Amino acid sequence: VIKRTAAEVGVLPRGSGSGAAAAAAATTAADGDVVMDAAEQPPGQISEQQQAPGQAAAEGAAAPAAAPKQLSHNRKTLLKFLLRTIALSSYAPTGNLAATRPQDEDAQLLYASLKEMYRRPEEFGGSLFSLAVSVMTDLIHHEPQSFRQLQEAGLPDAYLAAIQAGVVASGDAIVSIPSALVALCLNSTGLARVREAAVLNVLVDVFTSKKTMRVLTSDTPAILGSGLEELLRFVPSLRSDGVNVVLGVFRALCILGGECCRAGRRSCSTAVVRGSAVLACRKG
């Protein structure tokens, strides 16, 4: 399953995955997902529809930079089931860690696959990005000592860099931030990296950018709020940073609403706060 995941992500050549991945995906046949066409094919025989994203990336390498193309629905669905299978089979609660821990070679492939997904969030989409984050989070909670291997593989840094660059506009990706930070902060090195990256500042953009505000619907804000409350409760050293971020969000929202202008200031100018266009007022 890990090898097939690595192949679908691009860490291994396509067709390198074992037949076990097809069997794992086949267990979801009752759900009626179109991923079955891809999962049941013999290794090396991938449909033209699934090859299209990789071919387009290769053919457009010399073309001007453009918005990254997302994977096809089939490949996304296949990767979802592969990641869920990894989480359920490899890291299920058990008293024998050695029985569930993947072999070193497979573990390195898994880490490389997750890192690649953190590096290309727009291509894989918010749901897959969130699942990849969940796998890392489960790894740390299930076996805290694994943080050293994750750090050596560059996963925490790759995740923090992805968040700093701008959260992908997806409710799943946004609500996964607090739980991921809780897991990283269980280790002193991880806590230091989180504080150094000032990753909580990205929440200002989440609550003020039109791109991300569109996905803050239904239960997403409530889930995000609960996650942030849990983060600040379990990681007291981040409370001051969290309070500053909340105040920053309120200030940005007031500026967006023109409150500063109504308060008696005469003119406004355009400024940028974490990538969001807002109004910065100045005294006339």
Summarize the structure.
The chain is mainly alpha-helical. It has helices at residues 2-9, 19-26, 36-39, 48-59, 73-90, 97-100, 104-119, 121-124, 126-142, 147-153, 155-164, 171-184, 188-197, 202-208, 210-213, 220-234, 239-256, 259-262, and strands at 267-273, 276-282.
Characteristics of this structure?
284 residues; mainly alpha; two-stranded antiparallel ribbon; 18 helices; 2 strands; globular
Overall description:
This protein is mainly alpha-helical and 284 residues long. It is built from 18 helices and two strands. Helices cover 63% and strands 5% of the residues. Residues 18-65 and 266-284 have low confidence and may be disordered. A two-stranded antiparallel sheet has the order 1-2.
Mean pLDDT: 74
- Report the helical percentage: 55-70%
Give the H and E element order. HHHHHHHHHHHHHHHHHHEE
Describe the largest sheet: 2 strands, antiparallel
SSE layout and pairing:
Elements: H1 2-9, H2 19-26, H3 36-39, H4 48-59, H5 73-90, H6 97-100, H7 104-119, H8 121-124, H9 126-142, H10 147-153, H11 155-164, H12 171-184, H13 188-197, H14 202-208, H15 210-213, H16 220-234, H17 239-256, H18 259-262, E1 267-273, E2 276-282
